[in-house]
Write a structure and sequence with these properties.
The complex is a heterodimer. By secondary structure, chain A is of the alpha+beta class. In chain A, strand 4 and strand 5 form a beta hairpin. In chain A, helix 6 packs parallel to helix 12, helix 9 packs parallel to helix 11 and helix 10 packs antiparallel against helix 11. Chain B is an alpha+beta fold. Chain B folds into 2 domains: 113 residues, Jelly Rolls; 89 residues, Winged helix-like DNA-binding domain superfamily/Winged helix DNA-binding domain (Arc Repressor Mutant, subunit A), CATH 1.10.10.10. The longest helix of chain B is centred in the middle third of the chain and has 26 residues. Chains A and B meet through helix 1, helix 2, helix 3, helix 4 and helix 5 of A and helix 3 of B.
Amino acid sequence: MPKSITFKANSIIYFQGDQSERIFILKSGRVLLKTLDIDTGKEVNEVINTGEFFGVKSALGRYIRDETCMALTDTEVLAFSVAEFEQLVLSNTRIIMKMLKVFSNQLRRIHHKVEKLLNKSDAETDPETGLFKVGDYYFNNRQFHQAAFALNRYLTYYPQGQYASQATLRLQESERYLSKTGGSGTAAKPAAAPVGMPGMGAPKPSGGTGGAKQFYEAVGLISQEKYQDALNILNEIITGNTDPENLAKAEFEIGRCLTHLKKHDEAIRHFTGLIQKYPKHPDIKEALFLIGKAYEGKGDKPWAKNFYEKVMSMCQEDEPTAIRARKALQAISGGMG
Amino acid sequence: MSSELDTFKRFGVDKKAGEIIFCEYEPGDAFYLIQSGKVKIVKIVGDVEKTIDILNPGEFFGEMALLEQAPRTATALALTDVRLMEFNQQNFDVLMQGNPQIVLNILKIFSKRIYDQKRRFMILKLEEIPARVADVFLMLDENMAKPEDPDDLSRTFQTTPEDIAHWAGISVTKCVEVLTSLQNQRRIEISQGKIVVKNIAEFQRFVNSRRRTKA
């Protein structure tokens, strides 16, 4: 049972450096927490209000108190053991949520401070360069699986970034290597998919589920060129379905609808997200081809060209997607002079 | 038991050994709890992949992404085949309702990490490099079980110049230089994978004096 304890004005509830597993709530009176700011060395005071907790962090983290706690007026507190505190907050999750926000905020602030001190001596790396370098490192060390992952991420976040062309080349080469060695990179054939994603690519015996029915309805609408209606149904599948097979297929079809609706930016974003989420998606080449189409639709020929070339590098020469990519490439190359 | 299975169905992610879970510098939007297998946390420093931590079932990682999509500060790789629970802002409420104990554990981890980061900050705040190195030993000592005999002031640390350099925010070369000079002064002994500090109280006095003059 939590214990009620009273303190006279100006008495100390605990000292900095004490080891204790007690957590307090202030019932009445006023309490002051005194800390030394780790940055400036100056004393910082914080007043606790009625109903607030204190002593939580050191008790939960099992380290010494890092502040001295003093009663300013005659004060009554409720003292909990860690176990009692846990019982209380588990039945009142809003408290956990609130504390989580406060703690995560503190953690982020102290993390930033540490990073700032470190960067005095270390040159700061911007996220774009950093991400590319991670991919580059794995590529140079012939860890193609990791390289492909990092480079894919790079191209997703920075499709027009300063290292985009290098990243694309390295990615192609990584994928070529992975498909040659039978590694399950993004270029893996659908037959290899069950290793990483059970159910994907292979039809499921339980075909008659609601999700599947909706899916075929959507495909039907697409064939009738009713893309907006199809999109609505596909979005319903996404929100209501957790079957990874239907989900992956629906996501792909959403991208197709967006392409047909000439929502180019949305289509690019959607397909890059899809490739990232399902690196072994059986329609990955088609998705890349459609990204190229979307860039072409936007009038961005160099990028369209990049993607068409990538599709061709991943396909056998006589694959339908490769043939379409080659045609598209010839068409825009002609236009570019 | 069945609620645990439900939880897993909603949040579960499987990764094969060697697969990257997330990459340093990419924006983070999820954090993870390891259900089975091991996860390696690495950073690419120059031309070296440096292992920062190896995590086991029951441990969390990526939790800084909980409330803000800041860039990842390290890369997480599956060291073995792993099964993870993935949480993000969208499914966090569901987790909170169904399994508040997990969220409470995150709160505890935050408490501990705030302390660790503060301690690290205090080390980095010291201007003199030898004082930083000495303070790293003090920090390592604080996290170790105390010896039975309180008069025993010698301490053995399972650590390497790389680790110490990391905590002190200095280059490994500089760190080795400081350690060598400490060894020449017979204050420490360096051997394979471990460092013996002859008198930890002496280190404490040294660091205290440097910290006081600064403040």
